[in-house]
Amino acid sequence: MNIVPLARRLLAALTVLVLLTGCSAIQFAYNNVQTAARFMVSDYVDFDSAQADEFRARFTQFHEWHRGRELPVYASLLAEAGGRIQRGLVEDDVRWAITTTRDRYHLLAARAIEEAVPMLIAMKPAQVQEIEKGMADKNAKFEKDNIHADSRKVLKRRIGQMEGYFEDWLGTLTSVQEELIGNFVRAHSDLTALRYADRRRWQREAIAALRAHARYKGEAAQLAVAQLTTLLTDLIVHPEKGRQPAIRQALAHYDDELVALVVAIDRTMSAEQRARAVKRMQAYADDFTALSRRKAAEKPSS
Q1: pTM of the entire structure?
Q2: Are 185 and 166 a contacting pair, CB within 8 Å?
Q3: Quick one: how far is CA 38 from the chain centroid?
Q4: HSE value, Cβ hemisphere, 13 Å, CA-based, for 24
Q5: CA torsion 248→254→257→263, rounded to 10°?
Q6: CA angle 124, 125, 128 (to 5 degrees)
Q7: Residue 57 CB-density burial (10 A; 0-12 exposed, 13-18 middle, 19+ buried)
Q8: In Å, what is the CA distance from 203 to each residue of 83, 120, 136, 240?
Q9: For residues 90 and 56, what is the distance between their CA atoms, to the nearest angstrom?
């Protein structure tokens, strides 16, 4: 579920605010996502006025591409997912959802990288250091909250988070559903440390690539953009290339078990839970359709 922080934050502002915001607020969140993106990027690096202007221009271009190209696809996929839930899920349905979601994310990430790289190679050395420090600060907090914290408390929190994801779609869970979720989270409690190690790896590679390609001018800058784009695309779109076998195997096993969990939950769903899930899918689809059709003249200024 990653690139250097400027591209990551730009990407996260769209994916997190759009996909995890409640339906009633989704159009507001999407139309005001540029403000959120600037705030999130500021966690890692301070822009001068020229860089801030370029960020606004590039984000606007990225946002409009996403509005016109991706939102109609999301609406169609959500409608399809709702139909599958209505019929009852089998393993192929869940694998379809996982693959489809990753495909859209990879396309989104590739486009975000294209917009971010020209800014990244123009960063001053001090700004690259800011990005690295921002990474270190976030990592330290993650370690404190997830790696070095009381394992029982961490596990309880993760189970609660996973239950929350399902409750968003199904409403109140049954004791059987809670037990299924708890067993799944406990079975994969070691995956956090593996994912964190993988994150540290790509962070080191990303910073090294950024330092190697920064501050070029003229034709050299054009070549640096192409090279850095390729490197970052490999890191985010094809992360498996640099992963250790143990991580690849653990993630594949996680996917298999996640498929089994969703199918098991589906088999325990009440008629009310199924109807709620289908209704929420359609509500998201309707919001995405409305957002994709909104004309530029109607959009609020950022």
Answers
A1: 0.83
A2: no
A3: 17
A4: 0
A5: -110
A6: 90
A7: exposed
A8: 40, 14, 10, 15
A9: 44
Q: Which helix (H) or strand (E) holds 283?
A: helix 271-293
Q: What is the pLDDT along the chain (302 residues), one digit of tens a residue?
A: 333 444 444 443 333 333 333 344 556 556 666 666 666 677 788 889 999 899 889 988 988 998 999 999 999 999 999 999 999 999 999 999 999 988 888 888 889 889 888 888 888 889 889 989 999 999 999 999 999 999 999 999 999 999 999 999 999 999 999 999 999 999 999 999 999 999 999 889 989 988 888 767 667 777 888 899 999 898 888 888 889 899 999 999 999 999 999 999 999 999 999 999 999 999 989 988 998 987 543 444 44
Angle between helices 49-65 and 33-41 (to 10 degrees): 130
The length of the chain in residues reads 302
Among 224, 1, 7, 32, CA closest to 111: 7
Contacts of 95 (CB under 8 A, 6+ apart): 259
Q: Answer yes or no: are the C-beta atoms of 111 and 5 closer than 8 Å.
A: no
CA–CA gap between residue 175 and residue 55 (Å, rounded): 48
Quickly count: other Cβ atoms within 10 Å of residue 22's Cβ.
10
Contact 128/210 with Cβ under 8 angstroms?
Answer: yes
Angle at 186 between CA 180 and CA 188, to 5 degrees: 105
Structure tokens at 207: 């910073």
Q: Where are the alpha helices (DSSP H) in 21-124?
A: 26-31, 33-41, 49-65, 71-87, 91-120
